[in-house]
Amino acid sequence: MARPEADPVPPVRAGLLDAVYDDLGVRQGPEGGTLRVWSGHADTVELVVFDDVDLDWAIATLPLAPVGGGVWAVTTELLRPGARYALRADGPAAPGNTFNRETLLLDPYARGIVTGGFGDHRAVVVDGGFDWGGVPKPAVPLDRTVIYEAHVKGLTKRHPGVPPALHGTYAGLAHPAMIEHLVALGVTSVELLPVHASATEPRLLNLGLTNYWGYNSVNFFTPHARYATAENRRSGPEAVLREFKGMVRLLHEAGLEVILDVVYNHTAEEGLGGPRSSLRGLDNRSYYRQHDDGTYIDVTGCGNSVDTATDAAARLVLDSLRYWADDVQVDGFRLDLAVTLGRDGAHTFTPDHPLLRAIVDDPALAGVKTIAEPWDVGMGGWQTGNFGTGWHEWNDRYRDRVRNFWLSDVDYARRADTSPTGIGGFATRLAGSSNTFSAERGPLASVNFVTSHDGFTLHDLVSYDVKHNLANGEHGRDGADTNRSFNHGIEGPTDDERILSVRRKAMRNLLGTLLLSAGIPMIAAGDEFGRTQRGNNNAYCHDSALTWLSWEHADWQEDLAAHVRRLLQLRRENPALRPSRFARPGARTPSASVMQWYDEHGETMSIQRWTSATHRTLQYVAASTPEHEEPNRILLVVHGNETPIEVTLPPLDGADRFISLWTSITERPTEESRELQPGEVVVMPDTSMHLFRVV
Q1: Which candidate, 66, 102, 268, 403, has a CA 20 to 30 Å from the CA of 439?
Q2: Exposure of 560 in the CB half-sphere (CA atoms within 13 A)
Q3: Which residue stretches of 457-574 are H helix?
């Protein structure tokens, strides 16, 4: 019925791309399924096959044979599609090892999972066949990419146009009503919070809460079943996978990319004493970062850190990315706490880490967008700007500077009657963060954001001075204390129309900055409507109306969404707003934007005014360097304090007039195209922006 694999492979090591790591997991062949598992320290590895219905009824136990390089293998006709199975591993008792021959373990390469209870999983063999119908990946150019970060359930749970049976599901995300919103908004790429199979920590379960965000992976190859429809969950992992692939196909048909937020830096096995459900039981010493005595080196804050200095662990990550990019056809990845993945054997980050280079150099991942969250909580964990060519990074420096300029600086000025900083740093971020990213990487290395899933929503950023997280069960200790937010005079909800009006304009300024900046913009789902989480800046544990998007909107919310649509339209139409490269003085750089800076008098900005804390008004001119599109030039006027000012439009070579395109001043985007001449005066009210096309 079964035979161990023979003819051992010589234990030659050539890094994570060594052929010894090929074809791990289950592969179908003429003699049945072949299972290959890696464990460098085990003495024995067994396959346990279970009944199709009763997950506790083991129908066969088969030994795996060592075939070299730490790989164990067996071939059996029992490993057919639909089969439920688990592993057992035994090995020596030594510091760092946690073998237990009685523990049932999940195959790290399992394509399907069924769960009997907390930490009690069975792998499922899936066929994975799917008709893609010839639908290609959209391959959105980087300069045109606009990311929309969303939670599968939160985005669709309450959408009135999505049938109730599809609420909170992959199929719901692919419903025409949902696609219509995304396309009409003007985003190009949907970045989904983790969809790998995940688990909720016992601490949260005891509090009656859940790990809603999903940053607690059980397995790196299986879609989270709870986001599938009830019918497909009942049908099993094969149907869940088909639903996920169907979502990807329908989004691709609409021209929308799918980017996955992936968590490879740690797993749901938590710290020592946590569940021994997979990697810990197979080879704890090799898969997790440890001191010599076996205690964990936790640079993630989640109990454990996957040790990608081990070739097998690094290859596990790479193979997972390949699977999702090829078999499931996703378009990109945002790697959570990516610094952890780039730590070497001494636990030090290096941008040339073999895994980080393999991810961007692997032909199997060609054209895939790779985005790093460029920090973790370990020593030397903040690495914004330090990833290599081919990587894009969440730019927290951009986030902080933009929040400061429009919010905390204004708050400070009200209290101290002067501003703490001027406009120079803000302008650098607006122009692509050249002080953070090298000329070789260019402005598109920066993923610009003002808000994300983690922290205040856009509405709450302008409505709360402090976090309100008591519902999280941690006595308000969790979540960031420094938010650079500003409530504009009253904490939280208010009926004061004066304050509400200023808050709405602050949201327009933040969105205008984000969507008119050089770099790749990312919008957090619901911010286009000004959604609130009632001041909770760490709502990871709430699967409720607090985190589900509401689709019943007041007039001001529809007005805000209209601003987002208009700004994204202007971004598409004006290549000067989305350069691919930094311009170089005295040289013509294709697909760069040549920038000029003027003060409110229409005069070239002096160094003194650039650096002065009291000077917060700027005229920013960007002229595209044509490569694929027609020449284009824009003027953006930014005024960053609460005293109105008259701005004289600058005299520009070859400029006859300025056509008004957008302003943050009005509650709703205006349709009129006002034209002004160089030298004319524009009145900028308190804290506002105005965009013109130069012709």
Answers
A1: 403
A2: 23
A3: 458-461, 497-516, 555-573
- Distance between CA 687 and CA 158 in Å, rounded? 35
Give the torsion sign (CA, 139, 141, 144, 149): positive
Structure tokens given for 204: 């949260």
By the 8 A CB rule, do 98 and 277 touch? no
pLDDT band at 297; cut points 50, 70, 90 = very high
* pLDDT category of residue 10 using cuts at 50, 70 and 90: very low
Give the Cα separation of 457 and 465 in Å (integer).
13
Q: What distances in angstroms separate CA 143 from CA 51, 231, 568, 572, 580, one per listed residue?
A: 52, 40, 12, 9, 6
Longest dimension (CA), the chain: 88
Indicate the DSSP class of residue 576: G
- Residue 4 in this model has a pLDDT that exceeds 70: no
Phi and psi for 25 in degrees, rounded to 5? 90, -155
Q: Residue 15 to residues 12, 161, 354: CA-CA distances in angstroms?
A: 9, 50, 8
Cα–Cα dist 574/568, whole Å: 10
For range 568-580, the mean pLDDT: 98
Tens of pLDDT, residue by residue over 464-500, are 999 999 999 999 999 999 999 999 999 999 999 999 9
User: Is a pLDDT exceeding 50 seen at residue 2?
Assistant: no
Whole-number Å distance between alpha carbons of 38 and 137: 33
Q: What are phi and psi of 262, to 5 degrees?
A: -115, 140
400: β partners: none
Q: Yes or no: say if 125 and 237 are a contact pair by the CB < 8 Å rule.
A: no
3-state secondary structure of 294: coil
Residue 355: is its pLDDT beyond 50? yes
**Domain-by-domain residue ranges, the chain?**
15-125, 585-694
The DSSP output letter for 540 is G
How far separated are the first and last CA of the chain, in Å rounded?
78
Q: By the 8 A CB rule, do 249 and 241 touch? A: no
Q: List residues with catalytic annotation.
A: 336, 373
Give dist(CA 227, CA 215) in Å, integer: 15
Distance CA 375, CA 383 (A): 6
Predicted pLDDT at 586: 85
Select 15-125's CATH number: 2.60.40.2470, 3.40.50.300, 3.40.50.1820, 2.60.40.10: 2.60.40.10
Residue 8 has pLDDT above 70, yes or no: no
Which CA distances in Å does 306 have to 14, 165, 193, 296, 364?
20, 37, 20, 10, 23
Whether this prediction's pTM lies above 0.90 is answered by yes
**Rounded CA gap, 45 and 90, in Å?**
7
Is 61 in contact with 44 (CB distance < 8 Å)? no
Q: How confident is the model at residue 585 (pLDDT cuts 50, 70, 90)?
A: confident
The reply to whether 585-694 shares the fold of 15-125 is: yes
Separation of alpha carbons 563 and 653, rounded Å: 31
CATH 2.60.40.1180 fits 585-694, yes or no: yes
pLDDT tens-digit profile of 58-96? 999 999 999 999 999 999 999 999 999 999 999 999 999
The single-letter code of the amino acid at 322 is: R
Q: What is the mean pLDDT of the chain?
A: 96
